[in-house]
């Protein structure tokens, strides 16, 4: 009932604003141009650029100009502004958990992240990489986000949401830009961007380097704190700071000529800290590294045979690694698990797993617009993923209770099937899809699509979608959407071995999700834009590690089910030529159907507000406010609910200093709020009982030169 009252109230607001704000003499063509401007175009909903109001999806577009306004230094700070999306944290390296509409999991494999339309999903855990290390934003031209399923277009893992990061081209840079930033946590960033023409080629080069000690908020108690109380030791490093230092180097190249475009990139991560610890026991010395190489060649011809044919073909390669730079300690020096009188592990429990993967993708699709009322899109493709090297050096094994036992000195157990955590494997995926956009009247459009996928390791899946878009008025669009999506089991879930805590299961089925949505996109005036989205989803065959009744060993099974519903309201308002306001509110309620309790961990309510005020020529002040409200604990977690938090940021920017210079100053978490993200609950104990602290107040200053 409370939810229905909220929806009726939102609809009343839309109606009232229309009645009060519409000008009798409004120019209809001008309003339509405002509705379908370049900033409001999106491509990931159908594979073809389309006005966001008419796109058959609930979507958000964030431009490079928006990123500047936010004052963001990393991708996660940008995504936190999207309604219905909250960025939580995994203890391991504080990797981001992009939580769409209450769909939460520790490795976040239910979200598909693309760079220029190409997935960066890893086979091992189904995430972006365990050594993620953040992503800088200077090379980003725009970010397109779909809330809801996208498997009918993008296949596996386009589940709870799709995030497409589009990098800059020559047209976005137009010359050369160099910049530098310094700030809290001994943070230093530099970048160089260049876009120009050479011998008939359009070329863009982007280089970004960053080094930081990372925020060092305190973990009060960790997994070793509990073990100390159980085994009578006193070796925990808690209270102690999280380990979030890192060194990043990002390079991107974009070359285009005619119908062809070649892109290449490197994301190099070094000296990456372990966050709150790989085993949720503090590890200030452990260091990871990663190299992620990518290249893609795209052929695009909007008039392949004739003006009715639009053809695109793409070949891509990604090589990604998880490496260890310095020994990673699961538990600290002196850890003892019953080895009286001497400690079991005088140098600590050391585990150094390394994983290397390569991914080759090819796809080809074509649009045909020769029919009067139909736009047909068809495509085929393949993906070959190869986990081609697995290495492990460690000084422990696990007994039947899951407790570490000494192996003596460090041993290289690579290739030892009695000790290895995973074998080298590959996955082949072949797919085809068909989509029809049927404009059966001037104001109505129906998008129907289906995709068939075949996987070499778990079989076939079919995922349809339907989207009915009604141009209710020239300034109001109504959408009714249905979609089905799937999430492919990761190799850790399928093939984990020699691990009494969590064994893989090669007989797993993919998780699946069905979502029903109603969306209203409304422009009562040229200065005001409102959207309202209502959704209901059914998440089935959730993969969980379930203890065997006789051995108590956890094995991956399709055991979970979750349902959820909610609403998202957005408003963009240009109050004056020099001041605009952006706000959104998101509500979700998700239920674990096994326990009939709240699914937990995700906020029930989110409120976001951002303004941009040009108070003097070229002087911009951008405050933003993010309020995260009412996060319940998951079933079995008896801790009190985690506290709400509200964070206020402020950015001051001066543009066009002597035409070419730009300077900015930012303060994040101005009021130094104690903000925390939920830590995982264990079977017998919660390793980090007081959750994961976020950064306190921090300051950054930057300088740019564009010529």
UniProtKB/TrEMBL annotation:
Subcellular locations according to the entry: Cell outer membrane
Recorded GO CC terms: cell outer membrane
Domain TonB-dependent receptor-like beta-barrel, residue spans: 280-670
Membrane topology according to the record: Multi-pass membrane protein
Keyword terms, alphabetized: Cell outer membrane, Membrane, Receptor, Signal, TonB box, Transmembrane, Transmembrane beta strand, Transport
Signal peptide extent: 1-21
Any one Gene Ontology molecular-function term assigned to this protein's record: siderophore uptake transmembrane transporter activity
Predominant cellular place of this UniProt entry's protein: membrane
Protein name as it appears in the record: TonB-dependent receptor
Source species: Nitrosococcus wardiae
């Amino acid at each position: 009932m409370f939810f229905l009252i909220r929806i009726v109230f939102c609809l009343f607001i839309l109606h009232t604003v229309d009645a009060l704000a519409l000008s009798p003499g409004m120019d209809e063509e001008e309003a339509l141009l405002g509705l379908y401007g370049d900033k409001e175009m999106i491509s990931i909903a159908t594979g073809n650029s389309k006005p966001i109001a008419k796109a058959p999806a609930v979507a958000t577009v964030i431009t490079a100009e928006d990123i500047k306004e936010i004052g963001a230094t990393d991708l996660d700070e940008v995504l936190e502004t999207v309604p219905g999306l909250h960025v939580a944290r995994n203890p391991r390296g504080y990797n981001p958990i992009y939580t769409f509409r209450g769909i939460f999991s520790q490795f976040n494999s239910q979200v598909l992240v693309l760079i220029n339309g190409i997935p960066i999903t890893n086979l091992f855990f189904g995430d972006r990489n365990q050594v993620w290390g953040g992503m800088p934003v200077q090379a980003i031209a725009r970010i397109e986000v779909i809330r809801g399923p996208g498997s009918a277009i993008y296949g596996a893992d386009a589940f709870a949401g799709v995030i497409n990061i589009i990098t800059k081209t020559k047209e976005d840079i137009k010359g050369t830009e160099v910049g530098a930033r310094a700030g809290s946590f001994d943070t230093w960033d530099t970048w160089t961007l260049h876009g120009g023409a050479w011998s008939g080629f359009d070329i863009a080069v982007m280089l970004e380097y960053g080094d930081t000690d990372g925020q060092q908020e305190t973990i009060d108690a960790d997994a070793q704190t509990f073990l100390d109380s159980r085994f009578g030791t006193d070796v925990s490093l808690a209270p102690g700071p999280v380990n979030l230092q890192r060194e990043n180097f990002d390079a991107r190249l974009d070359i285009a000529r005619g119908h062809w475009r070649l892109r290449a990139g490197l994301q190099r991560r070094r000296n990456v800290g372990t966050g709150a610890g790989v085993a949720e026991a503090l590890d200030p010395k452990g260091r990871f590294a990663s190299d992620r190489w990518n290249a893609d060649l795209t052929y695009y011809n909007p008039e392949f045979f004739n003006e009715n044919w639009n053809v695109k073909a793409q070949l891509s390669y990604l090589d990604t690694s998880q490496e260890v730079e310095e020994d990673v300690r699961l538990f600290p020096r002196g850890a003892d698990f019953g080895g009286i009188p001497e400690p079991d592990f005088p140098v600590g429990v050391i585990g150094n797993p390394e994983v290397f993967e390569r991914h080759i993708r090819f796809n080809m699709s074509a649009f045909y617009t020769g029919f009067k009322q139909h736009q047909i899109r068809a495509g085929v493709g393949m993906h070959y993923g190869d986990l081609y090297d697995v290495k492990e050096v460690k000084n422990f094994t696990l007994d039947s209770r899951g407790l570490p036992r000494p192996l003596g000195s460090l041993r290289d157990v690579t290739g030892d099937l009695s000790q290895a955590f995973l074998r080298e494997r590959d996955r082949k995926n072949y797919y085809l899809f068909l989509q029809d956009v049927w404009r059966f009247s001037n104001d109505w459009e129906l998008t129907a699509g289906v995709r068939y996928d075949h996987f070499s390791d778990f079989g076939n899946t079919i995922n349809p979608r339907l989207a009915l878009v009604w141009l209710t008025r020239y300034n109001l669009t109504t959408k009714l959407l249905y979609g089905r999506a799937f999430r492919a089991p990761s190799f850790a879930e399928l093939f984990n071995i020699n691990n009494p805590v969590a064994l893989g299961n090669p007989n797993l089925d993919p998780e699946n999700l069905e979502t029903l949505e109603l969306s209203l996109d409304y422009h009562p005036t040229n200065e005001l834009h409102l959207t309202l989205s209502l959704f209901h989803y059914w998440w089935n065959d959730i993969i969980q590690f379930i203890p065997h009744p006789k051995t108590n060993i956890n094995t991956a099974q399709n055991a979970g089910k979750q349902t959820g519903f909610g609403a998202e309201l957005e408003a963009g308002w240009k109050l004056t030529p020099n001041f605009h306001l952006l706000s959104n509110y998101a509500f979700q309620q998700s239920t674990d159907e096994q326990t009939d309790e709240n699914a937990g961990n995700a906020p029930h309510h989110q409120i976001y507000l951002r303004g941009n005020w040009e108070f003097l020529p070229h002087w911009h002040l951008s405050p933003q406010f993010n309020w995260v409200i009412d996060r319940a604990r998951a079933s079995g977690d008896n801790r009190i609910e985690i506290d709400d938090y509200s964070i206020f940021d402020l950015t001051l920017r001066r543009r066009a200093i002597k035409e070419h210079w730009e300077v900015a100053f930012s303060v994040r978490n101005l009021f130094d709020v104690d903000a925390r993200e939920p830590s995982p609950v264990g079977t017998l104990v919660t390793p980090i009982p007081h959750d994961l602290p976020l950064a306190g107040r921090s300051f950054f200053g930057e300088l740019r030169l564009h010529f």
